[in-house]
Amino acid sequence: MFTGLVEEIGVVRSLSPQGRGIRITVAAQRVLHDIHIDDSISINGVCQTVVRRDASSFDVEAVEETLLKTTFSTLYPGKRVNLERALAIGDRLGGHIVQGHVDTRGTVRAIRKHETSWLVTIEFPQEFARYIVPVGSICVDGVSLTVARLEHAAFTVSIIPHTWVHTTLHELAVGNTVNLEFDVLGKYIERMMLHHYHRHTLDPTHALPHSQSITDISEEWLTRMGYS
C-alpha cells in the first residue's frame, strides 16, 4: 500500500523484453536506502516488485497485463518516473490510500498556470465517472491529488508548487497519457451496496445489472432497504 506522496524522481536506465512483458531498470537514490528484493515499489503509480538492486538502481518485471493497462508501454531510457516505497506501519498517511493498482489511463486535455498553482484537466473513460467526486482523492501517475472540478468525462486537479516541482507532473504536456487509480474506498462501497441490493431486492428480476452504475439506485430504493 502507498500514500501517493512521491519520494523522489527516478530515471529509467534500460528496458529489456521479457516474454510479453519487460524488465525495467530504474536509477534512483533515496528509495534505495532500505529497499530489498521482493519489496513493493510504486513507479508512476504502478505497484511493482523489486527483483534486483544495487547501489544505484533496481529492476522490476512488468507483465503483459501491466503494459496493457498502464503507461509502461510508453517508457523509454531516460524517462523520469515518480517513485514511492510501500507504506510502513506507523508512518503518517499524508496522501490517501493508494494500492498501486492502476484502473485506467487518462489523457491530459489542458494545463493552465495560475498565480499560485497549476490546473491540469484530464480526460478519462466515462465508465469510471462513478468513482470520482469533487474534492475527493485521485492518484495521477502515483501522485495523490484532490479533484477540484468534475465534468462528464474529465476532471481537473489543482497542483501546488511543491508537488509540481518534486514530481514529474511539471513535465506533462497536452496529449500525454497518465496512470489513474480511483479511490479504493468508493469501489468497496459500490461492491457492498450491489451485494446488499442483490440479496435484499423484493423482485430478483429487477436486480441491478453489473453494467449499471450504483448512482442509478434511487432514493426510494434506499429508503425501502432501511437507509435514511
Characteristics:
six-stranded antiparallel β-barrel, single chain, 228 residues, alpha+beta, 15% helix, 36% strand
Describe this structure in words.
The protein has 228 residues and is of the alpha+beta class. Helix content is 15%, strand content 36%. The protein is built from 4 helices and 12 strands; from the N terminus they run E-E-E-E-E-H-E-E-E-E-E-E-H-E-H-H. Strand 4 (46-53) and strand 5 form a beta hairpin. It is globular. The mean pLDDT is 89.
Q: Would you summarize the structure shown here?
A:
With 228 residues, this protein is α+β, with helices and mostly antiparallel strands.
**In this structure, how is the largest beta sheet organized?**
6 strands, antiparallel, barrel
Number of helices: 4
The helix content is 10-25%
SSE series: EEEEEHEEEEEEHEHH
Computed structural class: alpha+beta
Query: How far apart are the termini?
Result: 34 Å
Contiguous runs where pLDDT drops below 50 for at least 5 residues: none
Strand content: 35-45%
- Give the neighbour order of strands across the main sheet: 1-2-5-4-3-6
The oligomeric state is: single chain
> Radius of gyration from the CA trace?
20 Å
Number of strand segments: 12
**Which term fits the overall shape?**
globular
